[in-house]
Amino acid sequence: EAGxxxxxxxxxxxxxxxxxxxxxxISGHDNLYWYRRxxxxxxxxxxxxxxxxxxxxxxxxxxRFLAERTGGTYSTLKVQPAxxxxxxxxxxxxxxxxxxxxxxxxxTRLTVV
Amino acid sequence: xxNIDQPTExxxxxxxxxxxxCTYQTSGFNGLFWYxxxxxxxxxxxxxxxxxxxxxxxxxxxxxxxxxxxxYLLLKELQMKDSASxxxxxxxxxxxxxxxxxxxxxxxxxxKP
Lengths: 113, 113
Hints:
The structure holds two protein chains of two kinds. Chain A is an all-beta fold. Chain A is 0% helix and 49% strand. Chain A is built from no helices and eleven strands. In chain A, strands 2, 4, 5, 6, 9, 10 and 11 form a seven-stranded mixed sheet that branches. In chain A, strands 1-3-8-7 form a four-stranded antiparallel sheet, with no helix packed on it. In chain A, β9 and β10 (103-104) form a beta hairpin. The model of chain A has no long low-confidence stretch (mean pLDDT 93). In chain B, 0% of the residues lie in helices and 61% in strands. Chain B has no helices and eleven strands. Chain B has strands at residues 3-5, 9-13, 18-25, 32-37, 44-49, 53-57, 60-65, 70-75, 84-94, 97-103, 107-112. In chain B, strands 2, 4, 5, 9, 10 and 11 form a six-stranded mixed sheet that branches. Chain B has a five-stranded antiparallel sheet with strand order 1-3-8-7-6, with no helix packed on it. In chain B, β6 (53-57) and β7 (60-65) form a beta hairpin. Chain B is globular. Chain B starts with a strand and ends with a strand. At the A-B interface, β5 and β10 of A face β5, β9 and β10 of B.
């Protein structure tokens, strides 16, 4: 089966611009997670979808971040406007159920200059 | 708060055995995961412990003691390809869900010839 796919793999944008990251989970996986790793820090949870509903968005840093999962398939994470501290690697993961393991994508490396 | 500690770096020799420790203090516990991550790639699942004891899978074993908040990952017959970061992650329940992963900063393992 195809794994978790993230696009783009790299993105360099200027401060104040908007960027949209996309995640395609494994087909049939209802649970989709977004995580972020900023340089020198641990991977941190951002939010969790079950199908199209946000189960937990306690990790979203502020209202500049907007995640959607229309139709319960792929998800997008938009950062608007981007700030320097938003730079990092954004990972997406999916799982078929909450008692199962998570399959991660390769991540999107976002650099805000 | 949530805290997961693991050594920053370790070095071992090809063919040897290495143990990577992880201690955790979290607001809840719903399983402990170990992931392997090569630079620029997705974290890949290695093991999962939810009950005390040892789980063995080929050259990799993982141990959990919930009363001590402690886990280790044991890698046997080290190979050069095992050079990677090893991430310890605890799933912490949230609301009515099984929860989301809290990661340690990872242990960078270097395997020398």
